[in-house]
Structure formats: C-alpha cells, structure tokens
Amino acid sequence: MVEGPDESLLNAESHFAFGENWASYARGIGAAQIADAESGLRRLLGDEPLTGKRFLDIGCGSGLHALAALRLGASEVVAVDIDPASVATSRAVLAKHAPGTRYAVKHASVFELDSASWGQFDVVYSWGVLHHTGNLDRALRSAAALVAPGGLFVFALYRRTLSCGIWKLEKRWYAHAGPGTQKMLRIMYLTLFRAGLRVTGRRFEDYVSGYRIRGMDFHHDVHDWLGGFPYESISPRDVERKMTELALAQVRTFTRQGWFGRLFGIDHGVFGSGCDEYIYSRR
Q: What are 155's strand-pairing partners?
C-alpha cells in the first residue's frame, strides 16, 4: 500500500484526465493498431516468448497492450489503472477483441499493488506511466517488487532533458485548463513542431502518416504529452542505478538521444523528452 501521508497519490483527480484521451483513442482501434501493438511488444521482449506467462500491465490506458499480450500467448493478463475511464475502456476493448481469454482489469494504483495480495508476474509491463504517478522512485520500487524470479520488468520513462522544468510547469497548467485553452495550446505546439520538422528537411504530413509507434495515434499522443501531469523524468544512468539497488539486471534498452544530446550529454527537450525503454530481469 502507499506509505505515510501520500494518499493523495491515489486520487485520480490530481492527475491529468488520461482516461478521457484513451477512451477517445480506443474508438479507432482496429487490426492495424493491434498488429502494431503486438510488434512493439515483441520488439521489447526480444526472444522471450509470452506463451504461458502471467502478465501485469500497470497503467493500461486503452487496454491495447494488454490485448497484445493476450494475443501473443500470455496465459493470464492483469491490467490496472488509477483512472476509472481507462478501466472501463480497457474492459470494453478486451471484451471485444479477446473474448474467452483469461484477463482481469482492476481499478488500482501502482502504490496499491503488493505481491502478497496480487502475486508475482513473469512480465511486469508499464510503458510511459510510472513518471506520471507523483513519486517515480516509489512507483519503480512497487512495480519491481511484483517481478517473479526469472521474470522481466519492461517499462518506459521520460528521458531527462534541459527543458523538463519548463514542461512540468506547462503540464500542470494544461491539465487544469479548459478544453478551449487546451486546443489553443495544441495548435501552437503543432505549429512549432511542424516548423521544427521543416528545418530538418521533413514533412509534417509524412511524419504523421508514418506514425505507427506501438499502435498509437499522433494527435492523441500530443494531447497526452502536453497534459501529462504529474511529470518526472530520469536519465538512463539513474535507471541503471535504481535497478541495481532492486536486484534487477539489464537485458536491453532502447534509448533516444539526438545530436544535441550526443554533443552535450543531455537533450534540449524543446519539443518533449520522449521515452527511453528498458527491459530488466530478476535473475
């Protein structure tokens, strides 16, 4: 359970309305999105099969990746989310696309999960979620404790950049702004993003049409990025240090670093930080 006085971390109202965004996104889930989600999950798992495995999806959002795990052979999937709208959406998506499979979708925070009550899992998966909990360090510890011996911890976290402090302020403001204000800021962001692509010789239309990251949708992801509060970020070095403390060994990572980061050691983050992806094992 969550420790001490931080019960506010369990209050979905203190977070951006991720569930509303995922409910909107889920209306467009079809064969292409499911195939891309399966491909993305296979990429992270490498040669590790999911057949017969128990899989936990922390922060299930739309339920798409819980669905991908079932389709890749997981014997049981447990999906949890702090947002009731995400829970309802995930249940609807799994009921439609994975009837007859073994799954459960629960309304719960990562801070409420413990191995005594929930058991341990062969794969604990949390993509782009733990940095939105309000306490990243505790969230990592809580999630890692659910990894069974020989199991995998698969997660993605925002990479620390020079602009993270500014983005944290922006996200706090955006998360509590009205729909009209949010739309205005999205237009401003997209205008600048389009200009940034043009400077590097790329077309915005090509970028959006080719946006097939894990089955996601570019415009829903923009809304998610601008409003994603609470917000924390972390460097790959600090992730490695934390995982070593938790007795987890690195299997592989997929880290993102542009030319600025390669030159100066830290990315500028003007248009966002992006997520680094990590796969660790409890040997």
A: 126, 278
